[in-house]
Specification:
- 20% of the residues lie in helices and 31% in strands.
- The chain is α+β, with helices and mostly antiparallel strands.
- The protein has one domain: Umud Fragment, subunit A (Ribbon), CATH 2.10.109.
- The strands form two sheets. Strands 1, 2, 3, 4, 9, 10, 11 and 12 form an eight-stranded antiparallel beta sheet that branches. Strands 7-6-5-8 form a four-stranded antiparallel beta sheet, with no helix packed on it.
- The radius of gyration is 25 Å and the shape is elongated.
């Protein structure tokens, strides 16, 4: 017999003691999973459902996405990336848009086309000849320069998107994260690219 071994009372537990022990184990498990989920939500990723058609045809109403948050904690958004941001007019809502211009870039809408730093952008992700109209902030033919820490974003559905043309630039702090992976519907499942 091992002299370092300590034996406790071995009387059988009653039904209520067993039930109480299982409930405590269950609550502890929930707390651990809740803490893991909270850390994931705050620092790694967040789940979103697309509501509306501002990113059509790239995104559809009802698509489900995973938005990852680490990329922009370690670096800056890149032109063409699809991001999730706080609605500049109502922070209780999230918007999904595409980064068009970076800090220091100039943006102009003229003749239904978008120009960044004087050159027309390719918009390879849009159907051919998709017109882009100016808005109340970015008026036709006016050049706007994004300041430090300012980004210009637009929805891919240019005729039906509330975006920087209407409410101006956003800051990096308003960006929730990068739309990374579409997991629903199954036929569209996959990693989201800039194209």
């Amino acid at each position: 017999m091992d002299p370092n071994l300590i034996y406790g009372d071995t009387h059988p537990k009653g039904t209520f003691e067993n039930l109480g022990s299982h409930i405590i184990d269950f609550i502890q498990t929930l707390v651990v999973f809740g803490a893991i989920f909270a850390l994931f939500y705050l620092f790694v990723g967040q789940f979103h459902k697309v509501s509306g058609l501002s990113m059509f045809p790239t995104m559809h109403d009802g698509d489900f996405l995973l938005t990852e948050k680490l990329t922009y904690k370690l670096g800056d958004p890149k032109r063409g990336q699809i991001i999730v941001l706080k609605n500049p007019r109502d922070e209780s809502q999230d918007f999904i848009k595409r980064v068009i211009a970076l800090p220091g870039d100039t943006v102009k809408v003229e003749g239904d086309k978008v120009f960044v730093n004087g050159g027309q952008i390719a918009d390879a992700y849009l159907p051919t000849n998709t017109p882009t109209h100016a808005g109340s902030f970015l008026t036709e033919g006016t050049t706007i320069k994004a300041g430090p820490n300012q980004y210009f974003v637009m929805g891919d559905n240019r005729g039906h998107s509330s975006d920087s043309r209407e409410w101006g630039t956003i800051t990096k702090q308003e960006i929730v994260g990068r739309a990374f992976f579409r997991y629903w519907p199954p036929q569209s499942m996959g990693i989201l690219t800039n194209k």
